[in-house]
Design brief:
299 residues, alpha/beta, Rossmann fold, two-stranded parallel sheet, SDR39U1, Epimerase_deHydtase, TIGR01777 family oxidoreductase, NAD(P)-bd_dom_sf
Length: 299
């Protein structure tokens, strides 16, 4: 039985991935920032540079999902530092401990975000080889990926997934998006023309599973559905799926900027992101269209 060590195991993707991997016969261990008596859970302290040695030694694969929530708080100067440090320092620590205790690790699979391409709205379809953006979101992703790619330098197969908006009935972005629509006060944001690259929770978890089981998989992949949907279309399809109507005009950009500050950029901008590279690996989507995904989520 192979062992998969997950960081960020209590997050939306981490919880679903834990169940999926166990159902496929893997042993799953979790790194936690709090001391816990839960089975298969190990302690780590990023600030102090500590990870329980056994957690690293036993791992055949590491899936690195940990990082402070991008949309959880306003982007103050302090929060921006937390968002970067939680990703960069945690990855640096994993690299150091793997090099020390488990240089024969079979694979390091890490999260990143489509924010890599920059918070912008355009007709361009971004692919993995495109140049990174220059704004704060892009900076986070560039620094994060730089540290993850260090695993290649010690000959450990490395896979990075630039993930879009993950849709699930169990929490995350979709519950926040659908709540006002269920209450009859939903509306498109800004001009509604910004794209919302998304992916169903089952598909993104299957990508991580595929990254473990396919030794030919390496490099960086966009983890998004193949369908391109604007915010206006997303809002309308969500309302239809919930048997609701959109009666209100679009929420003006200035309102969101007043409420959220610089964080509003993640709601008001968005471009199309290509899924072609992962498709060429013969990965099969279970939920390739938003209509199908919403039918499952709202059933």
């Amino acid at each position: 039985m192979e062992t998969v060590l997950i960081t960020g195991g209590n997050g939306l993707i981490g919880k679903h991935l834990n169940h999926l991997l166990q159902s496929k016969g893997y042993k799953v261990t979790i790194l936690s920032r709090s001391n816990s008596d839960r089975p298969n859970t190990y302690f780590w302290d990023i600030e102090k540079g500590f990870i329980e040695q056994e957690a690293i030694e036993q791992a055949d694969f590491i899936i690195h999902l940990a990082g402070a929530g991008i949309a959880d708080k306003r982007w103050t100067k302090k929060r921006k530092k937390e968002l970067i440090d939680s990703r960069v320092h945690s990855t640096q620590l994993l690299y150091k401990k793997v090099a020390q205790f488990n240089p024969n690790l079979k694979g390091f699979i890490a999260a990143s975000g489509i924010g890599y391409y920059g918070a912008t709205t355009s007709d361009k379809i971004y692919i993995e080889n495109d140049t990174a953006g220059t704004d704060f979101l892009a900076t986070i992703c560039k620094l994060w990926e730089k540290e993850s790619l260090m695993f290649n330098t010690i000959n450990i197969r490395t896979v990075i997934f630039r993930t879009g908006i993950v849709l699930s009935k169990d929490g995350g972005a979709y519950t926040k998006i659908s709540k006002p629509i269920k209450m009859g006060v939903g509306a498109a944001l800004g001009n509604g023309k910004q794209y919302m690259p998304w992916i169903h929770i089952i598909d993104v978890c299957n990508m991580y599973l595929n990254a473990i089981e396919n030794p030919n998989l390496h490099d960086i992949y966009n983890a998004v559905a193949p369908e391109h949907i604007t915010n206006k279309e997303f809002t309308k399809l969500t309302a239809n799926s919930l048997h609701k109507k959109i009666r209100l005009p679009n929420i003006p950009s200035f309102v969101l900027k007043t409420l959220l500050g610089k964080l509003a950029v993640i709601l008001l901008t968005g471009s199309r992101i290509s899924s072609e590279k992962i498709i060429t690996t013969k990965f099969k989507y279970k939920y390739p269209s938003l209509k199908i995904a919403l039918k499952h989520i709202n059933s």
